[in-house]
Design a protein that fits this description.
about 190 residues; alpha+beta; globular
Length: about 190
C-alpha cells in the first residue's frame, strides 16, 4: 500500500471515530483488505454478546480477506471496546484508536490515543453539549506490536486460504457475512 492510501485510511478512521463518538456510538472493529495495493472494502464486526461471541466476531473479520486472497490488511479497533466486548484486559493505551497494517510476513501496530471532551453545540436557545475527540501525540509505530488475541487471530487468518467448494468463494463469503450481521462495504478493486 502506498503512503497516500495509508494516510487516507488513517484520516478516514479518525473521522469515523470522531463522528461516532459525537453520536454516542462505540465504534466496532473494522478490517480493510487490500489486493495488489487496492482497497477492496471495509467490513465492520457484527453486533455481539460479551465474551466468546465477541472474540469469534472479531477473528472472523478475516474471512473476506482470506476469500479475496488479500496480500495486506488493515484492522482498526478501539482499545477499551475490544477489551470490554471480549472480556479481556486492555492491551495498550485507552482510549485509543489502534490500526495494524499486516501482511503474511508480519505487522506494524499504530496507536492514536485521544481524550474525550465536550463542546457546545448550536446557538441561541438550543444549546447543548456534544462529545469531541482530542487526538494526542501518536507514539512511534510498533513492528510486531502486541495485539489483542482476537485481532491477532484476524491478522493470522486473513492470510490462510479458505477452502470453499464454490465457484465464487469471495461472493459467497460476502453474502454469508452480511447474513451474520457484518456490515460490508466493497469497492470496485476486484472488478479489474
Amino acid at each position: 500500500m502506498d503512503t497516500r492510501t495509508w494516510d487516507d485510511l488513517v484520516g478516514s478512521m479518525k473521522g469515523t471515530y470522531a463522528k461516532e463518538v459525537r453520536e454516542g456510538v462505540v465504534p466496532r472493529p473494522v478490517i480493510m483488505p487490500l489486493v495488489r495495493g487496492e482497497l477492496i472494502g471495509l467490513i465492520w464486526a457484527r453486533p455481539t454478546d460479551p465474551g466468546a461471541d465477541a472474540l469469534t466476531a472479531v477473528a472472523a473479520l478475516s474471512n473476506i480477506a482470506a476469500a479475496a486472497h488479500a496480500d495486506e490488511v488493515v484492522l482498526a479497533w478501539e482499545t477499551q471496546q475490544v477489551a470490554t466486548a471480549c472480556e479481556l484486559p486492555a492491551v495498550g493505551p485507552a482510549p485509543c484508536l489502534n490500526m495494524v497494517r499486516a501482511t503474511a510476513d508480519g505487522h506494524v501496530l499504530y496507536r492514536f490515543p485521544y481524550s474525550e471532551g465536550s463542546s457546545s453545540a448550536g446557538s441561541g436557545e438550543t444549546e447543548g453539549s456534544t462529545a469531541t475527540l482530542d487526538w494526542k501525540q501518536a507514539p512511534a509505530p510498533l513492528p510486531d506490536g502486541e495485539l489483542p488475541p482476537p485481532v491477532g487471530a484476524a491478522v493470522e487468518y486473513s492470510f490462510t486460504p479458505l477452502e470453499l467448494d464454490h465457484p465464487n468463494p469471495f461472493g459467497v463469503t460476502v453474502v454469508l457475512m452480511e447474513e451474520d450481521g457484518y456490515t460490508v462495504r466493497l469497492t470496485d478493486a476486484l472488478d479489474d
